[in-house]
Specification:
By secondary structure, this protein is mostly beta strands. It contains no helices and five strands.
């Protein structure tokens, strides 16, 4: 494995993760490396294969 390639997000984790604000399911955006909560209007970043499920770290959807 190349050190420059970040670890991939394990899609099986998506089944266990929910939005911390609305408690609803999330969608995985592979291109943006984010977990999207449409109900909250937030996108949670995935860094080094680890989802950052903090509202303060989330990006507001347009």
């Amino acid at each position: 494995m190349n050190d420059a390639t970040p670890p991939e997000f394990d899609r099986r984790m998506l089944e266990a993760l929910i939005c911390p604000q609305t408690q609803t399911t999330l969608e995985y955006d592979a291109q943006a490396q984010e977990l999207v909560s449409k109900s909250a209007g937030l996108a949670f970043p995935i860094r080094n294969g680890i989802p950052i499920m903090l509202v303060d770290e989330a990006r507001t959807l347009d």
